[in-house]
């Protein structure tokens, strides 16, 4: 199982770039980019902060997918 996400879609809906998203949740643009690519799994705290920012349940942005 792999952690997947819809972060890029949610950012596009809000018209914010990776740099702005990073500032909102206290990480770098590179971290946001790595999360979106699936190269980095955020901590539970960071994942919750991202979901809180978009005012959606965590599982709407982050979800597990079987290989």
From TrEMBL:
Record bears the keyword Hydrolase: no
Protein name in UniProt: Transcriptional regulator
Matches recorded under PROSITE patterns: HTH_CROC1 (PS50943)
Keywords for the protein's UniProt record, in alphabetical order: DNA-binding
InterPro entries for the chain: Cro/C1-type_HTH, Lambda_DNA-bd_dom_sf
Organism from which the protein derives: Anaerosphaera multitolerans
A Pfam family matched in the record: HTH_3
GO molecular function: DNA binding
Domain HTH cro/C1-type: 7-61
């Amino acid at each position: 199982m792999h952690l997947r996400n819809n972060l890029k879609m949610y950012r596009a809906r809000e018209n914010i770039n990776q740099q702005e998203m990073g500032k909102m949740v206290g990480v770098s643009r590179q971290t946001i980019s790595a999360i979106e690519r699936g190269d980095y799994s955020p901590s539970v705290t960071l994942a919750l902060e991202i979901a809180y920012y978009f005012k959606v349940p965590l599982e709407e942005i982050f979800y597990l997918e079987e290989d």
